[in-house]
Specification:
Keywords: Membrane, Transmembrane, Transmembrane helix. The chain has 9 helices and 4 strands. It is mainly alpha-helical. It has one domain. The chain has a two-stranded antiparallel ribbon. A two-stranded antiparallel sheet has the order 2-3. A hairpin with a 5-residue loop joins β2 and β3.
């Protein structure tokens, strides 16, 4: 239950921030990504499906379901961020497939080189890699700290009381191997899916949108935003649980992870829903050369 209490406030805060940004984006005329109705529909359907999945898992975990097996004691909750992000990325991939091919009679020759390095914005990528590094450091530390527990989901500490007797204290839940191992496996699958989505975005056929390259960069930003959301939610849950169980100098690591996770949540939401606020650009065609005559090209 403590993990749920830690996760819900930042999630609600991120949702409120997205709503505020939506209003600001409408008033300021912020450019959108995936202007094709099919791409927009797929993206919002993915967001609704991911929200429903998160709600179901939180409800099941709060009721202690499943009560047995590897997914018990918060095990299912620990991999839920990756499952939610996977749904979001699949929605972006499906949306890319709905982008219509050019309908005009003239053809375009792309002068700009399309590659992962040119289609993936640098700043969002650096943000994802930085938070991933923080999560890996925290996971290694937490796993080592809980190594004294048989099942890796509690923190055991030994000490001597005032009378000189050896005393052992056990605190649970603690994000040891019970949680970090399945999380690492789920995260590996998520990163592979994100890499596949980037490849799909880069290799997709040209669409009839005059700013096709800009749309690709924004869709790649949405994929990175979904990954950043998963990393942030995982850090909030794992580091938040560790903060409650440990104090002293060692608490610097979980506190750092919790703060980084909280900051990652709203920015991941912005990158996912409003990548146009992160990747700016003109709507005019760029990097294309028309092979038809000007009179034929103008409709």
């Amino acid at each position: 239950m403590s993990s749920i209490v830690l996760v819900l406030p930042p999630l609600i805060g991120a949702a409120l921030l997205v709503l505020v940004l939506a209003v600001l984006a409408g008033r300021l005329g912020a450019q959108r990504t995936g202007t094709h109705p099919g791409a927009l529909a797929a993206r919002w359907a993915g967001i609704l499906a991911a929200g429903a999945l998160l709600g179901v898992v939180l409800a099941l975990t709060g009721r202690g379901i499943p009560a047995t097996g590897r997914l018990a004691y918060g095990g299912l909750l620990s991999i839920t961020p990756c499952l939610v992000a996977a749904l979001l990325i699949l929605a972006v991939i499906l949306g890319e497939q709905t982008m219509p091919a050019p309908r005009a009679r003239h053809r375009y020759g792309l002068l700009a080189h399309r590659s992962v390095s040119t289609m993936v914005p640098r700043l969002p990528l650096v943000a994802v890699l930085g938070v991933l590094l923080v999560l890996l450091v925290h996971g290694i530390w937490a796993t080592a700290a809980a190594s004294g527990c048989a099942d890796g989901r509690c923190l055991e500490r030994s000490g001597v009381d005032a009378e000189g007797n050896l005393v052992t204290s056990v605190s649970s839940p603690f994000p040891g191997a019970w949680y970090t191992v399945p999380t690492a496996l789920a995260l590996a699958v998520l990163l592979l899916l994100a890499a596949l989505a980037i490849v799909v975005i880069v290799r997709r056929r040209p669409s009839d949108d005059p700013a096709d390259a800009l749309l690709r960069r924004r869709c790649a930003t949405s994929v990175l935003g979904a990954v950043l959301l998963a990393l942030g939610m995982t850090l909030v849950g794992h580091a938040g649980a560790a903060v409650l169980r440990i104090d002293g100098p060692e608490s610097l690591i979980p506190w750092t992870g919790a703060v980084v996770g909280l900051v990652s949540l709203p920015w991941g939401a912005v990158m996912l829903v409003f990548p146009g606020l992160v990747v700016r650009g003109a709507a005019a065609p760029a990097g294309r050369d028309r092979t038809a005559e000007p009179a034929q090209a103008r409709r």
